[in-house]
Amino acid sequence: MNKFEHELIMCVVNEGFSEAVMDAARAVGAKGGTVLHANGTANKDAEKAFGIVIEPNKELVMILVPAEIKAAVLKELYDKVGLNTPGQGIAFTLPVDSVVGIGEGERS
Amino acid sequence: MQQQDKNKKNALGVKSSRVESGRLKLLITVVNRAKGDFYLDLIQSFDVNMQLLIMAHGTASAQMISMLGLEDSARTAIFSIIREDRAEDIMNALAEKFRTIKNGKGVAYTVPLASMIGVAAYGFLSNDHRTLKEEKK
Q1: What ipTM was assigned to the predicted interfaces of this complex?
Q2: Could you tell me whether strands A98-101 and B106-112 are parallel, antiparallel, or unpaired per DSSP bridges?
């Protein structure tokens, strides 16, 4: 049970993988997203310890989804663009308590 | 009694204060890039002191862009810190502008902030001039 009708999925991926993020999200019902360009700042010691090289140029994809499909979208993102893929994506969600605009029509 | 509750200390020994009565939210507004400044000014008129304008692009297909009546995929994402008690007014104003302004369609949503620190910073973000006077004393 979730008191929020929508959640905001934030997915940080390597540059050039935002299309792959949206393809994965759309496959389980997400409608659209917004892509922001960003620079990652990884801990160099942690990179060495985990044997992972972090590409500094990132894309942050914000996807607003109904709460009921959140888990499915996260799972799909984990499988298709997660840390074990070239996209090296990390995804998390934030609660959204009101929405207006495209596709919503009215306040949630 | 209520005041006593408000002043009780939490596990970290930090006193909770009237911040409780004026909670803040993060408002994210995504609009056509050309309309970014218009919406920035609109939101600022609702006691909003800090906003970030970020260049972005939408992921809708060309077909969807034309169906929604949008120009292209260039967008501006505006991150604004707003007061919870002004959220409804702001959302209503945005909804009206999204409907009526030419090429002004967009989407806006709010995310509750969990916590923050600093009376001056809170006063600035909430446009609460009482905190400003307290700081000067």
Answers
A1: 0.81
A2: antiparallel
What CATH number does domain A6-96 carry, 3.40.640.10, 3.10.580.10, 3.30.70.120, 1.20.272.10?
3.30.70.120
The answer to whether the beta carbons of residues B98 and A101 sit under 8 Å apart is yes
Q: How far is A85 from chain B (nearest CA, A)?
A: 21
- CATH value at residue B102: 3.30.70.120
pTM for the full model?
0.81
Where along chain A do its domains lie?
6-96
Whether B25 sits inside 8 A of A95 (CB atoms) is: no
Note whether B95 contacts A101, CB cutoff 8 Å: yes
Span B95-107, pLDDT tens digits:
999 999 998 999 9
**Is B87's Cβ below 8 Å from some Cβ in A?**
yes
